[in-house]
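Lay summary. Proteins are chains of building blocks that fold into shapes, and those shapes determine what they do. In this project we predict the shape from the chain. Here is one chain we studied, written as its sequence of building blocks.
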Amino acid sequence: MKSSSKGLLVFLTTINIIIIVFCSACALLMLFSVLFQHNAKQDKLVFGHHLYINTNNNLKPVMNKNDIIIVKPTSITAIKLGDFLCYYPVSADGQEVQFGKIEEINADEISLSDKAGHNTALAINDIVVVGKATNKISYLGKAVLFLQSGNNRISFYICVGAITLILLAITLLLHIKIKSRQEQLELEQQDVMPDSKTFSYTLDDLLEEEDSISFEKAPKVKTEEDVLFKR
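And here is the predicted shape, written in a compact code that computers can read:
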């Protein structure tokens, strides 16, 4: 019984930890999604960096589709060979940023390549350099894109709420079961070990319950002196 209750207690603790981690992760995801959308609209920096969602696999496996790319603002003069350039064309207003690996830098032109090794020459005056990619958060962009839709956010809230309620219900049932087993264990212990008060007696109680003891006088043994005196 004790081992069973202990196992349930461990399982209950695990469920509680899962609830905390799950709710925290969902809250952080929603917060990140809101901040990302807000900063993307106003092109604000997050801790000194831009955040963009990669929408293609042109640079896979370095940059996969739906990766969030962290871009450090850098001028064209600080760009080096091998850097992954983040830019967008001047002529395409509102177009998404693009990425490419720098293969060659000239006075008025740079050459970029993709995963297939195709080089694209771009005039420096025809592009706006945002910076260079320094890191990425794999596949998180897919969740951010999903939560940009109002209907998807509602579905997300419903799913999170339902899962949380199910986990809380499991926690409550386990708590009730553990408490019931503990009470049952206490009753079993009371049956095995009666109350100590039933064994507590005073000296007066013992004397009252003790039957009186009568002693018979032992017969006198005749000695040699008694025999001589009689003679």
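What the prediction tells us: The beta strands are 50-53, 68-73, 84-89, 98-105, 109-113, 119-123, 127-137.
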